[in-house]
Amino acid sequence: MKLVVQVKLVPTPEQASALEATLHACNRAATYASQVAFAKHLKDRNGLQKEVYAELKATFGLSAQPVVRVVKKVVDAYATLKANLQAGNLGPPTSKRHCRAVGSPIGFRPEAAQPFDDRCLSWQYDARTVSVWTVDGRMKGIRFACSPDQLKTLVQYRKGESDLVQRGRKWFLIATCDIPDPKVYEPADWIGVDRGIVNLATTSDGANHQGRRLSRYRRWQARKRAELQQKQTRSATRRLARRAQKERRHATHVNHRISKEIVSVAQRTGRGIAVEALGGIRERVRLRGDQRGTLSSWPFHQLGHHLAYKARKAGVPFMEVDAAYTSQRCPRCGHTERANRPDRDHFRCRRCGLAGPADVVAGVNVRDRARSAWAFVTMPVPHPG
Q1: DSSP of 321-371, one letter per residue?
Q2: C-beta separation of 177 from 154 below 8 A
Q3: DSSP string, 241-293
Q4: Inter-axis angle of helices 96-103 and 64-87, nearest 10
Q5: Which is it for the CA torsion 292, 296, 297, 300, positive or negative?
Q6: Of 191, 219, 286, 298, which has the fewest beta carbons less than 10 angstroms from its beta carbon?
Q7: Sign of the alpha-carbon dihedral angle for 263, 266, 271, 276
C-alpha cells in the first residue's frame, strides 16, 4: 500500500532562498508548458516534452531532469482535469465552472509543490539531511526533522518521487512509501460503525465519539470568518486562509484519533470493521439553507478514508455495506418504519418494542449486514452435480 511521510525541512536562510527561487522557476516553467499544451493540444508527455524541452532549459534555467519533472507535472494536471470532467465533479458542460476549466490553460501558483526524483534529490538518513538540486546549484546538507517511526518508514520503504512543499515560511518534503500489505485475518465478528454529524462515530459496541466539541469549534470559526469577511482587506484575506487551514488540521486530527481507536479495538478483539457506504450523499439529500454549511463541513468521508487505510495497514478486515434504512430497521425483528425513530437520538420499534440509542441501533444493523455479506462472500462454491 502507498503511504506518504511528511518531514519538515530546517534550511538556513541561504538554503531557503535557493529553494524558493527553485520552486518559483519550476512553476513559471510549468505554467508556460501548460500554455503550450493548451494551445497545441499536446496532452501526452512525449509530445509536450519535445515541444518545450529546449525552451524550458534556456529560458527558465532548469537542468534536464527538472525539465522532465515539470513536463510530467503538467501532463498529470491535465489528466486529473480530464478525470474530474468525466466524473462530473466540475458540473455539467453548460456550467460556469466547467466552462472556466476547459476554456483556459491550467496555471500553477509560485508556491505549488514540485516533485523531485532520486536524480534531483537524495536522502542521507543517518545525518538527517537531504541534497536537492536548485537553480543556484546542488544544495547539500539541508537538515530535516521527523519522528523515529517516520525515519524508520523512510529508510525501509521510501520509493519514487518526493514533493517539495512551501507553506508560509515553512518547508516540507512529502515522500511516497510503498509498504507491503499485511495478511488480513479471518474476523471472529464485526464492529459496525455509524457515522453522523452530532455523533461522529458510534460503534455497535456502544462506543460513542461525539462531535459536539468539533461542532462548537466550527461554529466559533464560522463567526470569526464572518467578522473577517466584513473587513474586506488583504490582511483579513490572509487570516481567513490561515484559519481555514487550522480548522482543517483540527478536524483531521479528530478523525485520526477516532479511527485509530476503532482500529485498535478491532485488532485487539480479532474483529473486522464495517461502515455504511455514504457516497453521493450531497446529491441525494435536499437541505435547508442553514443546513448546507454543516453538511459541507461534515468530515464523514475523511473518517471513512482513515478507517479504511488504517485497517488495511493493520491487517484488519474492512467492509462497506448498504446504508439504506440502517437507522429505521429493528435489528431484532427486522421491522422497518420511519416511526421507529421518533427523533434523532432515540429508537423504539413499533412492532416488538426494542428501544435504545438510535446511533447504536444503526451500528448494530451495519454489523449484521457485514456478517451476512461476509458469510455470502466466503461461502464455498458448490460443485456442479
Answers
A1: E--TTTTTB-TTT--B-GGG-SSSSEEE-TTT--EEEHHHHHHHHHHHHHH
A2: yes
A3: HHHHHHHHHHHHHHHHHHHHHHHHHHHHHT-EEEEE--TTHHHH----HHHHH
A4: 150
A5: positive
A6: 286
A7: negative
- What global pTM score does this model have? 0.80
Distance, in Å, from the CA atom of 39 to the CA atom of 42, rounded to the nearest integer, reads 8
pLDDT tens digit string along 101-154? 999 999 999 999 999 999 999 999 999 999 999 999 999 999 999 999 999 999
Residues in the chain: 385
φ/ψ of 286, rounded to 5, equals -105, 130
Residue with cell 446504508: 323
Q: How far is CA 332 from CA 192, 193, 361, in A?
A: 16, 18, 10
- Expressed in angstroms, the distance from the first to the final Cα of the chain is 41
Find residue 190's DSSP bridge partners: 272
Rounded to 5 degrees, φ, ψ at 163 are -100, 130
d(CA 178, CA 292) in angstroms, rounded, equals 38
Residue for cell digits 500489505? 181
Q: What is the pLDDT of residues 273-292, one digit of tens each?
A: 999 987 665 555 665 665 66
Instruction: Using alpha carbons, list the distances in angstroms from residue 225 to 133, 215, 230, 237, 263.
Output: 40, 15, 9, 10, 35
Q: Which residue has the cell 537538515?
A: 143
Residue 187, SS3 per DSSP: coil
Give the torsion sign (CA, 259, 261, 264, 270): negative
Q: In the 8-state DSSP scheme, what is residue 55? A: H
How many whole angstroms separate alpha carbon 43 and alpha carbon 36? 10
Q: How far is CA 181 from CA 89, 271, 272, 285, 383, in A?
A: 31, 18, 16, 36, 32
Contact 123, 154 (CB under 8 A): yes
The three-class DSSP label of residue 95 is: coil
Q: How far apart are CA 13 and CA 106, in angstroms?
A: 32
Residue owning grid cell 449484521: 368
Q: Say what the pLDDT of residue 297 is.
A: 60
Cell of 309: 487505510
